[in-house]
Write a structure and sequence with these properties.
By secondary structure, the chain is mainly β. 8% of the residues lie in helices and 60% in strands. The longest helix is centred in the N-terminal third of the chain and has 11 residues, at 14-24. This is PPC domain-containing protein.
């Protein structure tokens, strides 16, 4: 496994930055190891919903998980508001960094990930291949 560490600065879009990083480093089987930080705007898609919801307030980034490859990223996020109320869902474009996002990414040398339409679910789902 190879590891990468990055810090996103204020105003950066979390998802777009991770997509850009994935392409810049040509990650074929990446995954989030850990992430902490803060957001000033969160855009999430909740379970079994087709539309996103936007929340404009300060949040702590308490968890981020998912897979990264050149054919797509699939990321889930958990955030907490000023009262500690936590919510989570699919990370969407439009999550803006408030002060920082410190992220450590792992990349497998044994696998290649590809996202392709699954006939059963109708969604782009992960396909895993030997590298």
């Amino acid at each position: 496994m190879k590891t990468f560490a990055l810090r996103l600065k204020p105003g950066s879009d979390l998802k777009e930055s991770l997509k850009d990083f994935t392409h810049a480093y040509q990650l074929q089987a990446g995954f989030i190891l850990t992430a902490v930080g803060s957001l000033e705007k969160a855009t999430l898609r909740f379970a079994n919903q087709r539309v996103t919801q936007v929340f404009e307030q300060k949040f702590e980034l308490v968890a981020l998980s998912g897979t990264l490859s050149s054919s797509g990223v699939h990321l889930h996020i958990a955030i907490a508001d000023q009262n500690g109320k936590t919510m989570g869902g699919h990370l969407e474009t439009g999550c803006t960094i408030y002060t920082t996002a410190e992220i450590v990414i792992g990349a497998s040398k044994e696998f290649a990930f590809e996202r392709v339409i699954d006939q059963e679910t109708g969604f782009k789902e992960l396909q895993i291949f030997p590298s």
